[in-house]
Design a protein that fits this description.
Elements lengths: L2 H11 L10 H20 L3 H25 L8 H13 L18 H25 L17
Helix pairs in contact: 1-2, 2-3, 4-5
């Protein structure tokens, strides 16, 4: 599957399709398009526009990952693990240090909170490595529990 067909498939034909299987080329071409688009939108410097971009594409990106995992014989819902970890990390990460009186730095987060965020970061790194390995595995050539092999 080429770049244009992968993007078209994931954005129009299978926008929110969580059943079936996705080939390596379909998944990785679509992820490349997503990352390039995210970089371009973030370069515009408008936070709201970036947030809208991410919200608009969270469903097809998750669905493509879901189908890709199923193509390798793994349950698709596993894709929710890194999504949940990133949301947890975003909720726990301390915000920028606020300015205190006189323009100096305000209070710093406690060591316990920073330790928790550090451990969560290590867990995320391990999970990312595992998922990259899984998502780069070849398709199962035969029909598996999630359907026939995807058409290229």
């Amino acid at each position: 599957m080429d770049f244009q067909k992968a993007v078209k498939t994931c954005l129009t034909e299978k926008y929110a399709t969580f059943s079936g299987r996705a080939s390596r080329s379909e998944y990785w071409w679509f992820i490349l398009a997503y990352v390039v688009g995210a970089i371009l939108v973030s370069l515009l410097g408008v936070g709201l526009l970036y947030a809208l971009y991410v919200l608009a594409l969270i469903v097809p990106v998750t669905a493509a990952g879901f189908r890709r995992l199923q193509d390798t014989g793994r349950p698709g819902w596993y894709i929710l693990i890194p999504v949940a970890l990133s949301l947890l990390s975003a909720a726990l990460t301390p915000a920028m240090t606020p300015m205190g009186p006189g323009g100096g730095p305000g209070h710093m987060p406690g060591a316990g909170g920073m330790g928790l965020v550090a451990v969560l970061g290590i867990v995320q790194l391990v999970v990312v490595i595992i998922f990259i390995y899984w998502l780069t595995r070849p398709s199962q050539p035969e029909t598996n529990a999630y359907g026939p092999p995807p058409q290229e």
